[in-house]
Write a structure and sequence with these properties.
By secondary structure, the protein is an alpha+beta fold. The chain has three domains: about 60 residues, Arc Repressor Mutant, subunit A, CATH 1.10.10.10; about 80 residues, Arc Repressor Mutant, subunit A (Orthogonal Bundle); about 110 residues, SCP2 sterol-binding domain (Nonspecific Lipid-transfer Protein, Chain A, 2-Layer Sandwich). A hairpin with a 2-residue loop joins strand 8 and strand 9. Helix 4 runs antiparallel to helix 10, helix 5 crosses helix 8 and helix 10 packs antiparallel against helix 11.
Length: about 300
């Protein structure tokens, strides 16, 4: 990640020749530089151009996807600035450790499970059988070490120490959602499709961070349309509010809510970014639905609504 970022930042203001770009990012080994440039070019974030005046020479410039990827980095830096032990510089070893712990926890399903409530390690092992116990233990330890998880002081009656998501882990909903939005808009063929777990984890992480006015009360359903083959399904959460406070949030969508907001994943991403051509469908108590979704937008894009699509 660090060299990719340095390359993108170096090209932010102007195109550079290969020699100048190599100098700007600190003269990495030639084979390493070639590999990173090829990866970024294949991803569509860089464009390789032949120099007309100097046959055989090439220069590199940012494409529109590359500029939008820098916007993702801005949101990620905003999250790193809020780290429990103080700001972390993007591209530093500490940032690499924090991002790796977050992505490993996300990919393993740890984030999705612990976004709901605290669980002990033995409980997590039963809920996440897809990875071995030693691997689970290592990933939990890594997330705890960087401040994304903490041990709950008062047990809930279960054996072992329950681990819970920290506020900083919940704030990671912003860079995670922003990165997924970039992938689906600019690199859909090279990245994984959005799944139910991704949707639920994003909502479950972010909802406890909402700060709503006291008059906001009732049950609101937030749903993303998920099309599997020819069948339309929904993933999301049911949020119950009392006097502006979130009293429950569940991924079970059954029941009749007082308000709801529904759209495709692209509609949600576009709406969060303020795009007029991507709108959510609101129903029921629309004032409540809009209050919840507008506050959610502030949670997901705290860095001045950085647009990535």
């Amino acid at each position: 990640m660090p060299l990719n970022l340095h390359v993108l930042k170096a090209l932010e203001d102007e195109d550079l020749s290969l020699a100048d770009l190599n100098r700007a990012v600190g003269h990495p080994p030639a084979t390493t530089m070639r590999a990173y440039l090829k990866g970024l070019t294949d991803l569509g974030t860089l464009e390789r151009r032949q120099e007309v005046d100097f046959p055989g020479s090439v220069s590199y410039g940012l494409t529109e996807p590359g500029r939008k990827l820098l916007a993702v980095a801005t949101v990620l830096q905003h999250w790193l600035d809020a780290a429990p032990d103080g700001p972390i510089a993007l591209g530093s070893p500490a940032a690499k450790s924090a991002v790796k712990a977050l992505i490993d926890g996300w990919d393993a399903g740890i984030v999705r499970v612990l976004a709901t409530r605290p669980f002990a390690l033995t409980e997590l092992a039963r809920l996440i059988p897809s990875i071995s116990y030693p691997t689970l233990e290592r990933r939990i330890a890594a997330m705890r070490r960087v401040g994304q998880l903490e041990a709950q002081r008062n047990g809930n009656g279960t054996r072992g120490t329950p681990y819970q998501a920290t506020r900083w882990l919940r704030q990671a909903a912003a860079p995670l959602t922003t990165a997924i939005a970039w992938e689906r808009h600019w690199a859909p063929a090279q990245t994984s499709a959005i799944g139910r777990i991704d949707v639920e984890a994003s909502f479950l992480l972010a909802i406890p961070l909402l700060d709503l006015p006291e008059e906001a009360s009732g049950c609101c359903r937030l749903a993303v349309e998920m099309r599997t083959e020819s069948r339309l399904e929904y993933a999301g959460v049911m949020v119950t509010l009392k006097a502006g406070r979130v009293v429950s949030c569940t991924a079970r969508l059954k029941g009749e809510p007082d308000a709801w907001a529904t759209g495709t994943a692209l509609d949600w991403f576009g709406w969060v970014n303020g795009h007029a051509d991507h709108q959510l469908e609101f129903g029921g108590d629309t004032a409540l639905a809009r209050a919840v979704t507008e506050d959610l937008r502030e949670v997901l894009l705290p860095a001045a609504h950085v647009q990535v699509s």
